[in-house]
Amino acid sequence: MKNHFRLEEQLAKLHQNISTPALLVDGQQMDMNLREMQSWADTHNVNLRPHIKTHKSIDFAKEQIAMGAKGITVAKLSEAQKMAGAGIDDIFIANQIAQPTKIKDLRRLHEKINLITGMDHEWHIDVLKKEFADCSKPLPVRIEIDSGFGRCGIKPGDGRLLELAKHILAKKWLKLEGLFTHAGQSYTAKSKDEVGQIARKEAADILKAKTVLAQNGIEIATVSVGSTPTAREVISRPGITEARPGNYIFYDGIQQALGSCNFDQCSLFVLATVISQPAENKIVCDAGSKALNLDRGAHSSQILDGFGTVLNIDGKIKSLSEEHGIIILDKPEPIKIGSPVLIIPNHACVVANLYDRYHVVDKNLSVQTVPISCRGLSQ
Ligand SMILES: Cc1ncc(COP(=O)(O)O)c(C=O)c1O
Do residues 156 and 208 touch, judged by C-beta distance below 8 A? Predict the structure, then answer.
């Protein structure tokens, strides 16, 4: 695994100019990850609508659109507002909006852009009603299907699906635009084969829901799926029209353990500095839980050995306090205090949300800072 990383070769130089802990992005690798997924979707005639919760960056979202993405997916209204403010005009909030206080803003946004939102209960219609009932432009909505994750959504054989679809169709201010599902249980798979089975079930369940509605005279335009582990398989299933992977822009330690990528495809790194060597086999760096997050695969079958993968030093990040990362060395050796540490995070999405900016390193090793525009936008 070691020595594959361009950034590792130039680490000393990068470390001279960037105050740590910091987020580095290998721009070339990130571009390759984006192109690969886009071309896989294009080959299968599936629209790509990447989930931006991973990178939370206006610049990266625009890059995804420039490469061919149909629009973007967000988790939160506040993310949608920020992205729309920067000119992105096709946004799916792949989530339920349940708090009445958000609905005025939702309508304002709907009037500006092509906005789609999710729902899985009639109550969501009631929440929207107060602000939308007199709206001449119908709000496109998608019903969430539970394809085995057991989070939100209606199971395809559940009678509530048809009931909800009928309720939506009865409102002239709503437009039933599609169905969506997220096979988050792929993170608990124990093998690539199991990920494949989950991807096939993800497709089969959402297509079953579409069939149930079709048998009742209700045609559905968009069949939207997606998680990074299942993306390749599910995109290739006939009948799928849209995919929403997010993590694939960076990949990370959890994706590597699941077999979604190899370490060479990871494009996001935490750059840290050795601040102490309290024992021959132990060093301390300046990246703690506020720089790396405590996630070792919380929802995963693969509980990772450590809080990130150290690339340039032979050792494991065994514990974290808020501002300190404790690295146990594979064999005792002196490590110079002040030297750099390059780490692949376990879970890129939560780590990105801890920083204000990326340092994107291009192929000539020039560094450009990119703001993490939606960082902290969880409303
Ligand atoms: C509804 C929904 N769609 C798409 C995604 C993207 O999946 P991934 O993070 O595996 O790329 C997520 C991730 O949590 C999600 O919740």
Answer: yes
